[in-house]
Design a protein that fits this description.
Radius of gyration: 31 Å
Number of strands: 0
Strand content: under 5%
Structural class: mainly alpha
Oligomer: single chain
Order of helices and strands: HH
Helix content: over 70%
Distance between the termini: 103 Å
Shape: rod-shaped
Length: 74
């Protein structure tokens, strides 16, 4: 009877170790994914800041009439 209990415990322990290993692998994969997404977010935020600065600089040029927008050959 003692051998059977020990075998059951060993099987349960092995199952728990396997689950823990899969959990660690999943956690590592999710950490890599989050880091990658954060890098993408950082890049997009920088680009947005650049675009906003460019738009603000364009607006600071003041009002321009449509005549100023016409090509010189008109």
């Amino acid at each position: 009877m003692m051998d059977r209990s020990l075998t059951e415990i060993e099987h349960r322990l092995v199952d728990l170790e396997i689950k823990a290993t899969f959990g660690e692998d999943l956690l590592d994969e999710l950490n890599r994914l989050v880091a990658s997404q954060q890098a993408q977010i950082d890049t997009l935020v920088r680009r947005l800041d650049q675009m906003q600065a460019h738009a603000a600089a364009s607006e600071m040029g003041g009002f321009r009439s449509l005549r100023e927008e016409m090509p010189p050959h008109y």
